[in-house]
Amino acid sequence: MSAPEEETYTTWRHDPKDLDAFGEWYQLVYRRLFYFAAQYVVPDDADDLVQNALVRFMSGDYVEKVDNSRRAVSYITQMMRSEAWNARRRHHIASMETLGDAEVPSGEPTLEEMTAASKAWESVAEALSEDEKHVLRLLTLGMGNREIANVLGQSYSAVSSRIYKLRRKIKDLGII
């Protein structure tokens, strides 16, 4: 974090109506915010994600709570992560609803095959711990290892190891 960044944030914080100070601070931190946003969504949507999170930050009472630029960037990054997660969840739910109305195309598994697969997954569910089931749910939502690490509050390597062991366990049960 640079001194000009901290100075412009402090100026804006003391006078939130000073849009010039805000503009200077925003230009100084935009690249960093865009970099974080691009990790959560496709780069085309990253700019919108940054702006939406910034509007939420400014419209709430966060400005009074946050006393330095680093914390402000941290709050805004958390808001972007939360918004990206909610958008991904809404998309997943919407896609599941449309799948429910779809007809089963030819070549798809029969009811008997699906029942057998369902029973196989029930045996997997019995063999898994609650933590493993939670990780499996997050994986089925389409989350990557880094996102799961953020949700669980664990390191990336710890989550990667857990997922590797989970996949190995499922494979040993003969499901995949």
Backbone CA Rg: 22 Å
Helix content: over 70%
Give the termini distance in whole angstroms. 48 Å
**Tally of extended strands?**
0
Helix/sheet category:
mainly alpha
Chain-wise SSE layout:
Blueprint: H1 3-14, H2 19-40, H3 43-59, H4 62-65, H5 69-101, H6 111-127, H7 130-140, H8 145-152, H9 156-172
Explain what this protein looks like in three dimensions.
The chain has helices spanning 3-14, 19-40, 43-59, 62-65, 69-101, 111-127, 130-140, 145-152, 156-172. By secondary structure, the chain is an all-alpha fold. It folds into two domains: 3-89; 109-172, Winged helix-like DNA-binding domain superfamily/Winged helix DNA-binding domain (Arc Repressor Mutant, subunit A, Orthogonal Bundle), CATH 1.10.10.10. The longest helix has 33 residues, at 69-101. 14% of the residues are buried.
Give a concise summary:
By secondary structure, the protein is an all-alpha fold.
